[in-house]
Amino acid sequence: MGAVIAAVRPLPVACHFHDTRGLGLANVTAALDAGVRAFDASLAGLGGCPFAPGATGNIDTEDTVFLLEQLGFDTGADVERLVALRREVESWLPGERFSGAIARAGLPKTFRVSASAAA
């Protein structure tokens, strides 16, 4: 990523990751270390590539927001509201495959919504 950023500077670089083998958020942290500050994710990890058998979809927005907030980035997103929206989407798409650790396990009791997301 560092080489890509250097090659296209001053253009911003955004990353789009899939979570096929459960390493999507590891890729986010590696990209953060290289200086990337924009990421594409999808609610509940929906999406993916129809040409990649077994592909599990994109990185999950809720998990990505939670990770970024825990690392000290103010995303401006309200992860609690994202999870609530996800529950609605689940009811609209019965039988669809959803992913995401935050929706499965819940937010830690110590989690605090950032000031900008609460506004």
UniProtKB/TrEMBL annotation:
Is Transmembrane a UniProt keyword of this protein? no
* Protein name (record): Isopropylmalate/homocitrate/citramalate synthase
| Sequence similarity | Belongs to the HMG-CoA lyase family.
Pyruvate carboxyltransferase domain location is 1-83
Please name the taxonomic classification of the source: Bacteria, Pseudomonadati, Pseudomonadota, Alphaproteobacteria, Hyphomicrobiales
Q: Which PROSITE patterns match?
A: PYR_CT
Q: What are the protein's UniProt keywords?
A: Lyase, Metal-binding
Cross-referenced InterPro entries: Aldolase_TIM (IPR013785), HMGL (IPR043594), PYR_CT (IPR000891)
Q: Which SUPFAM superfamilies match?
A: Aldolase
Q: Does the keyword Methyltransferase apply?
A: no
Which top-rank group of organisms is this from? Bacteria
